[in-house]
Amino acid sequence: MKAAPAPGLSVDRHIKLVHYRPRSKGTGRPFGAIWQHEGAIRWTSPLIPENDCAPSLKRFADWFPEAMHGFDEFSAAVSWLQSVCENECELPQVAQACKAKERLGLSCTRYEGPAEGTDLVALLDEGGLTRLPDAGLLQAVVNLHLKHLASEHAVLRGMFLLQPAENSLECARLLLHDRRLVRIYLDRDTSASDVASKLRAESDRLTRERRASEISFFVFAQLRSALPLRPSTQVVATGMRLPHITNGLIRLVWSMPISP
């Protein structure tokens, strides 16, 4: 594939990683993410079970095994952070509040993509519908994944990523070396059990409309399969985690069969 710089994709959603550094020992690491939506601050963490507002001791011990005796301190920090997010309306204010309370061990940094070594999807809870982030934020995450792959991945480096038309349902478009056009979509709301029927419908549509040079690449927020799905040569589906998207694009570029 001919190398070329990828045109910038729209990633105008500011997302911040929330880091925690235990007082006792160990290094700080991200344990959640915060973002702005409809004038309010939202945040989530896999350490807090769905339908709950307090962190789980077991999940904390798994995430920070070197500081498992500091759970009470962590819980107090989380409670304080929740209060800040409820009372502030701008992300910089939350970051400044964390900096002012440095003793709590919290800090916020802007998420610039997986080049930082963090797959943000792992921090966007466990996919429960009641806490699944809004589609705009998820699309920004997918676009950051694509930009990272286009600039860093040995196989995918130099992908021709194109910005879709305004108000399009697509996240991005990818032009393959053989001139096939890949339309990349984010699907937030389709459940894993309904993915197969949606893919069949899309495959039928492309055949009916005789779009032989097009491929539909779906990224499903609720799909957890480690392997991409490919019910036909023109339809591919993956989950949102970076390895899932990477695997799907590599197999597509190499035109290898993908087993459901």
UniProtKB/TrEMBL annotation:
It comes from the Bacteria. This is Uncharacterized protein.
